[in-house]
Write a structure and sequence with these properties.
The structure is a single chain. The protein is α+β, with helices and mostly antiparallel strands. Helices cover 32% and strands 25% of the residues. A hairpin with a 5-residue loop joins β14 and β15. The radius of gyration is 44 Å and the shape is elongated. InterPro entries: 6-blade_b-propeller_TolB-like, TRIM45/56/19-like, Znf-RING_euk, Znf_B-box, Znf_RING, Znf_RING/FYVE/PHD, Znf_RING_CS.
């Protein structure tokens, strides 16, 4: 009974994965325990996944930061293993009560042997081939003991059978009582073990072949990587050499250009200094003469004093007759200086230094003048322009008009769902859905009419929720793609939402002079007021915010990049001259390929950011 208990305890101390005594046991959420190393190996098989699936019950456990060491340790089991290892194992072959300490364990006999029994055992010719393990290796966990399993219900019986249906070993008595019903498949345990080992060998052979196949693939990748690295090194060396040779030439050229710019601008500065000096002399003359005259406390009575006083008064009168300063001359001189610009020399045989220039835009006239109402990037990376006089015109990134759809539909807004269906806001503020083949779907939305809500605008977020903003009603309605009533209303307290754009979990709204970032309950998170300009916002491909500010009166646009907190990052386009349209209505978007699209009611401007 004691041996059976020891065997049962020993079995419970074995990891179900490696079948060795537990080392650093860790508990999963399902309460099953495994070696830390085994769990590391299992987690590695899942790649970057932080979920670990229990090999026994298949329940999932989340591993924080893929670090198995952060899982709770099985302290009770760890303590039990240490206690068992600290106990001596006595010889089970000696029959005396005062049994000596065992020094080896015979795997084939299933017996612990002392020094005397081990010597005798090693001399018997039938036992010479047996596998004998030293106790010090067993206690350190370097080797695993193969024990003969006894039936838990019948401790004196060996588990000689295996039920392939129940997936368990059983003794002959258990087979008769529990595994003789139809559907059970009972075979000898030795046969199962033989088949199992053969299956393992087959799997190992297949694994070796597959591993060899993938290793060849990895070696091939390494070869390609080495070739690329060689190219990188060669190119780097060539670039460094070209750089070093060019630096001297560039330095000399830089000094010449700086000297030329300095000469031209210094001349202008001298002209301005001359004008400044003349004006300051006149100021000094006025102050001096005026002080002499006006600070006198006595009236001049004698002839000399009276003559001097008259002369000073005449001088002051003459000085006062001089015309007010003419700003035209300094402005003309300044313009001469400001006209000095640096343009990069892009000739093939010249050293290029670079230039600061305003981006050049493609200028595309829309087919229908004064008709643009909306613009949005298409799922395939093009740009769709909705027209009030009917139709959605689709342009490529190079400005080519590729197709026109919905020619007879008055467009107030355009959007796309994740399955590429069109969302069209019609002139009456009604929303219509269309399939990719432009067939209209029978889906109705209860939007506000034009009389109730006024002019409307539309955007679609990443969750396929449709947002319609109303200028007159000063609110935004959110709709599910299935149609029906609005699922939510967002109040726009104190401002008129003229355009709205989806941005992560927020909306970007444009009013007369202000861009606001609001959450989907209407709370303003950040705002940016652009006094005297007409701002229009879009989301960049880098998930930043682009804002175009339009000076409608002079016909120019500037485009800047901002963070998600509406903090300025950089200027992209500065005061680019555009053809002034009749209607103050503009749209800003970015192509997937990086080009920035700015649309007026008449024209589409495409700024190349490559």
């Amino acid at each position: 009974m004691a041996d059976a208990l020891k065997n049962a305890i020993a079995q419970s101390l074995e990891c179900p994965v490696c079948l060795n005594t537990f080392t650093d046991p860790k508990i999963l959420h399902c309460s099953h325990t495994y070696c830390k190393t085994c769990l590391d190996n299992l987690l590695e098989c899942h790649g970057n996944d932080q979920m670990l699936r229990c090999p026994v019950c298949r329940a999932e456990t989340q591993v924080p930061n893929q670090d198995v060491s952060k899982l709770p340790a099985n302290l009770a089991l760890k303590s039990l293993i240490e206690d068992v290892r600290d106990q001596y194992q006595f010889c089970t072959n000696c029959e005396s009560e005062d049994k000596p300490q065992a020094v080896v364990y015979c795997q084939d006999c299933g017996t612990y042997l002392c020094i005397t029994c081990h010597k005798t055992h090693s001399q018997w010719k039938h036992f010479i081939s047996h596998e004998v393990l030293a106790m010090n290796k067993i206690l350190t966990g370097k080797v695993s003991v193969r024990r003969y399993h006894k039936c838990r219900k019948h401790p004196k019986e060996d588990e000689e059978c295996f039920c392939s249906v129940c997936r368990r070993f059983a003794c002959f008595r258990c087979v008769v009582m529990e595994h003789t019903k139809e559907g059970h498949g009972v075979i000898e345990a030795a046969v199962y073990e033989g088949n199992h080992m053969k299956s393992i060998e087959d799997l190992k052979s297949k694994t070796d072949k597959k591993r060899h196949s993938f290793q060849k693939y990895v070696d091939f990748i390494d070869e390609q990587k080495e070739r690329v690295s060689n190219v990188q090194k060669q190119c780097t060396d060539d670039i460094n050499k070209a750089y070093e040779e060019s630096v001297q030439q560039l330095t000399e050229k830089k000094e010449l250009l700086i000297g030329e710019v300095k000469g031209r601008t210094e001349e202008v500065k001298k002209e301005l200094d001359k004008m400044k000096k003349s004006a300051q002399e006149h100021i000094t003359h006025l102050i001096t003469v005026a002080d002499v005259i006006t600070t006198r406390t006595k009236i001049p009575l004698d002839m000399d004093a009276l003559a001097a006083h008259d002369t000073l008064c005449q001088d002051l009168q003459e000085a006062l007759k001089q015309e007010d300063p003419d700003y035209k001359l300094p402005r003309q001189s300044s313009n001469k200086g400001k006209s000095v610009s640096f343009k990069r020399n892009v000739g093939m045989d010249e050293i290029a230094l670079g230039k600061i220039v305003n981006p050049v835009a493609k200028n595309i006239a829309l087919p229908t003048k004064n008709s643009m109402n909306a613009m949005v990037s298409t799922p395939d990376g093009r740009m769709a322009v909705g027209c009030a006089k009917g139709g959605v015109e689709i342009f490529s990134a190079d400005g080519q008009l590729q197709q026109t759809v919905f020619k007879h539909v008055v467009i107030r807004g355009v959007g796309f769902l994740s399955d590429d269906r069109y969302v069209i806001l019609r002139g009456s503020n009604n929303i219509s859905l269309y399939r990719r083949d432009y067939a209209k779907l029978n889906v109705m939305f209860e939007t506000l009419s034009h009389e109730e809500g006024g002019n409307a605008n539309l955007t679609v977020d990443s969750d396929d929720q449709i947002y319609v903003s109303y200028q007159k009603a000063q609110k935004i309605q959110a709709f599910a793609p299935g149609g029906g009533k609005a699922i939510r209303e967002i109040p726009c307290d104190g401002y008129t939402p003229k355009q709205n754009t989806s941005y992560n979990d927020y909306l970007i709204t444009k009013s007369l002079k202000t861009i606001r970032l609001i959450d989907k309950q209407g709370v303003v998170k950040y705002d940016l007021e652009k006094l005297g300009v007409n701002p229009h916002a879009a989301v960049s491909q880098g998930n930043t915010i682009l804002i175009a500010t339009v000076k409608h009166d002079v016909g120019s646009v500037s485009i800047d990049e901002y963070t998600n907190e509406l903090k300025h990052v950089q200027n992209l386009v500065f005061d680019y001259e555009i053809e002034k349209p009749e209607r103050e209505w503009y749209y800003l978007q970015q192509y997937r390929s990086g080009e920035i699209a700015f649309c007026t009611p008449d024209k589409l401007y495409i700024f190349d950011r490559k």
